[in-house]
Amino acid sequence: MLALLRAPRFIDLAPAEVYATLLDEGVYHCSIRTMYRLLAEHDAVRERRDQFRHPAYRKPELLAKAPNEVWSWDITKLMGPMKWSYYYLYVILDIFSRRVVGWCVADAESAALFKALFEETLAKNAVPPGQLTLHADRGGPMKAKATALLLADLGVTKSHSRPHTSNDNPFSEAHFKTLKYQPQFPKRFGGIEDARAFCRDFFTWYNRDHHHAGIGLMTPDQVHYGQTDAVHAARQETLDRAYHRNPERFVCKAPEPPAKPIEAWINPPQKPESIQA
After folding, report:
1. Side-chain half-sphere CA neighbours of 216 within 13 A
2. Residue 79's beta-bridge partner residues?
3. Exposure winner among 10, 32, 159, 246, fewest CB in 10 A?
4. Is the pLDDT of residue 272 over 60?
5. Residues 133 and 157 sit within 8 Å (Cβ to Cβ)
6. CB-based contact 218:231 (threshold 8 Å)
7. What does the pLDDT read at residue 275?
8. How far is it, in rounded angstroms, from Cα 61 to Cα 63?
9. What is the torsional sign of CA 236, 237, 241, 242?
10. Are 196 and 78 in contact (CB under 8 A)?
């Protein structure tokens, strides 16, 4: 029985699979429990399970100090008019400015659909080769060979999250939460054109009018198009006037607007702990 379990035919199979396969062939040697007992007595259970070793995935550490340096992209499902019907929303997000630089709604997940969207988005933003890193999780369209070849041809560096680690793609995850927590977001869409119309209005509002806490309460458009210094200075002037009119209202110090965004990280490196004497 041990020789049979160690044979090339069965070496990678669990005892239950071996038992069922033999039984379907009209063969019975022993129970599943006996197979496990025999393997355990000969220290073969762990050995058999270690035949497949998961590769070590490196934690992505990405830094953006300006727009069009690091983009993050992902796909989320939008519920259709009937049960088990879905549309797929593709979103490409600039992690520095939080601006949605490209999106589309389709009826399937496909590397080919992403290829068309990405090429259009790259051209629209006039990103030169060698400047951009594109980050994504490990879904099918993200890991597809067609996607990898496209990025290589366009001079774009690819980056992937570790498996089952949502924190490795935080900007896309947070953006989808903002989308789906909107009061106007419907439980179901009546059709794909209905979904596209909603997303068109949402992304216009998000880019142009949404004051994002992660970028100093500025809008993605203001950050993406280099208006941060002017906006910050105008806000400071407003606060200065308020302070000079009623300085007693500000107990600790003169008021300042939220800080301007200077960088955005995916997994910033940990600072070494200081050694205390």
Report:
1. 22
2. 86
3. 246
4. no
5. yes
6. yes
7. 45
8. 7
9. negative
10. no
Q: Which fold has domain 62-215?
A: Nucleotidyltransferase; domain 5 (3.30.420)
User: How far apart are alpha carbons 171 and 2 in whole angstroms?
Assistant: 51
Per-residue pLDDT tens digits for 167-219: 788 999 999 999 999 999 999 999 999 999 999 999 999 999 999 999 999 99
User: Which pLDDT does position 277 carry in this prediction?
Assistant: 40
Cα–Cα–Cα angle for 109, 120, 145, rounded to 5 degrees: 45
Distances (CA, A) of 179 to 17, 187, 205, 224, 260: 45, 12, 11, 20, 24
Both tokens of 204, joined, read 């216009």
Token digits for 82? 């009937």
Indicate the domain borders of the chain. Answer: 2-49, 62-215
Greater pLDDT, 16 or 48: 16
Mean pLDDT of 267-276: 66
Percent composition of the chain: helix, strand, coil (DSSP 3-state, to 5) = 45, 15, 40
Lowest mean per-residue pLDDT among 44-48, 101-105, 153-157, 185-189 = 44-48
Radius of gyration (C-alpha) of the chain in whole angstroms:
27
What percentage of the chain exceeds 70 in pLDDT?
Answer: 93
Global model pTM greater than 0.85: no
